[in-house]
Design goal:
Layout (H helix, E strand, L loop, with lengths): L6 H4 L2 H7 L21 E3 L21 E2 L5 H4 L5 H17 L4 E3 L22 H16 L4 E7 L12 E3 L2 H8 L1 H10 L3 E4 L3 E2 L2 E2 L4 H11 L5 E4 L7 H7 L10 H12 L5 H18 L11 H15 L1 E5 L12 E4 L17 E2 L5 H8 L5 E2 L11 H13 L2 E7 L18 H13 L3 E6 L14 E4 L7 H10 L12 E2 L17 E3 L8 H7 L3 E3 L10 E10 L4 E9 L5 E11 L10 E10 L4 E8 L6 E3 L4 E3 L3 E8 L5 E9 L15 H5 L5 H7 L1 H9 L3 H8 L13 H11 L2
Parallel strand pairs: 1-3, 2-12, 3-4, 4-6, 5-7, 5-18, 6-9, 11-13, 11-14, 14-15, 15-16
Antiparallel strand pairs: 7-8, 10-16, 17-19, 20-21, 21-24, 22-23, 22-27, 25-26, 27-28
Helix pairs in contact: 2-10, 2-11, 4-5, 4-12, 5-7, 12-16, 13-16, 14-15, 19-22
Organism: Lentilactobacillus diolivorans DSM 14421
GO molecular function: beta-glucosidase activity
Protein name: Glycosyl hydrolase family 3 protein
Length: 739
Amino acid sequence: MAIDPQLINQLTLEEKAALVSGKDFWYTATIDRLNLSPLMMSDGPSGLRKQDASMSGLGLKESIEAVCFPASALTACSFDRQEMNQLGHYLGKAAQAERVGVLLGPGINLKRSPLAGRNFEYFSEDPYLTGELATAYVNGVQNEGVGVSVKHFAANNRENERFTMSSNIDERTLRELYLSAFEKVVKNAHPATIMCSYNQINGTLNSQNHRLLTDILRNEWGFKGLVMSDWGAVADHTAAIKAGLDLEMPGKGDLSTDEIVTAVKKKQLSETTLDRAVSRVLAMIDHWQQQSGDPQKYDMDAQHQFARKLAAKSIVLMKNDHDILPISAVDSIAVIGELAKKPRYQGSGSSHVNAHHLVTPFQAIDQARPETPYAAGYSLSQDEVDHQLIDQAVTIAKRADKVLLFAGYPEQQESEGFDKDNLNLPQSQNQLIEAVAKVNPNTVVILQNGSVLLMPWVHQVAGILETYLAGEAVGEATWDILSGKVTPSGKLAESFPQRLEDTPSYLTFNADPKIENYREGGFVGYRYYDKKQLPVQFPFGFGLSYTNFDYHNLTVSVEDKQVLVSLKVRNTGQRQGEETVQIYVGNHASHVEMAAKQLVDFGKVGLNPGEEAQLSFTLGLRAFSWFNPATENWQVDNGSYEILIGSSSQNIRLHQDISLDWTPVQPLIVNMNTYINVLVDHPELKSALDESGIGEIFDKVMTSDPATAKMFLNMPLRAATTVGVTPEQIQRFLELSNS
């Protein structure tokens, strides 16, 4: 719809106040006398969750029928920008058909702890991967004429007491990890809206955080859209508008309007500041309002087929001893686990979708293999071990060549709104897996879970397939992989630890209900495990295939402000397959804490048996940068870097050292606290050392014995008086070196 730019001047104060608060849970305010229609929003990171007009409130499990796509925890494992863009297109088409103007998603917070209850809705522990996939997703949705709300801005990494707790983070960690993905999406996809999160950052509530919502988001990154609150995140509406929040969601009716009108009349809020928020609400409605009328039909069956394809391209083959997979036509199989018939295929809470066409794993298997034996093995409604159910499962396992055992977190164990306190499957499932594997070692465990879990039985089973929450086509996609119709190509977007105690935030996560101290700093996920050389169950970026790939012919060229990387990949196996090549950079130049390596690019390529392809990557300044809080800017240091090419963060296939000299060298300013090792490492200071007489003294000390020399180098210039240097010599040296 087209809105008169002068409309804001026609609004009364009460109407302006109404516009900066939601009319209800899903709509902006209506101004009938000016023919201003409301804009509708809907949850929908993994499928449209539009509320029917007859439904009230959140209605977390009541919505119109829509295709349920795989959750972000799984789609991130695709490492596929093109498929994420296509997912966005399909979500945009569904929203447009249902007259939804803004889709509330994607969620792009990092997976700091595997205990966080909402991890299923987020992409990864890595900010680069998150930012790339989210950018593709947002561009896809918005190219269909539907806006998005990228959430939850920012550092919303736990659920417990999420409305009030403070995420206490140092500036470098905040910029490099927790803001990085948002920055990329804002700059490269220009989202319609950003949704601020419930929590505080360093003691300031995010809905009232001027530095976050205005200084960084708008002034630094150039964001032009609207900032809305998460549902119920506003504690002080006047303070929020001053800070840069534009729309409180949902509104509180007359209470919301009255508090803003009163604030303006009492001069606690200027009308100019209010007009700024109103103008952004009007701009959002103008740009993203859909045509009025009844919902339109769209091809849900085509979207279902895409959901199947995307899930299959994302599922991760974790273990495949003796090539137990794929299942051959002559293999007899048994299916065990209640999740085969009652799959957990989507997250709980605001992302819950009323699925269009659910196909369970057992339905897909039974269609391909009629009369396949099945045993429940456990009950999803209880954790207690049911020995009768286990005995029934063991009986059919003994008769089969191979066992397909479905396991995972029950819905009540992980959800939005609370965090987990452990990473264990229910005891009933763990005991079942061990009992079945004992009588049939050809057991494949198929996991359905929203996030990381522990596997005490990992060495007892032959195969493990991670399907996360695979959407309504969970059954078809799972069987596509198990049967070999699709060669698995998913790669883990998060690390799987061997123990909860090994995780980087173990000592602080949920330790204090009021604050969350990010003491691990930038060492999150693989950045921590690789630096500590700590073994994990499965590393970031890991995933097996039914074929093999060879990496070779690496070339690296340092250009002006960019590095060009090229390599060849060959499919050396007998099946068609896709491989994700991961590019990491190791920084050996900067004298600050650094991860051993960090992901800076990736590419996915499909190859037939024997086929070879060349992949090329261009790495810009940001790939080699770190955020310097002292200068409040990104910094590239001259020196040595390493380009690492891997099939996971721990399986590096190729590498090459490079040297960068992109940053102009600043002259060294010597003072009394400059360390002696710095002085002797700068050849240009030799003449000043000699002329002042200090050089001769230094030479004598450094040639006395190694231990003394080492200790001497680790002293500041002012301490040189302890070895016979006079204050006059020091002063003369300072004059010569700084002249």
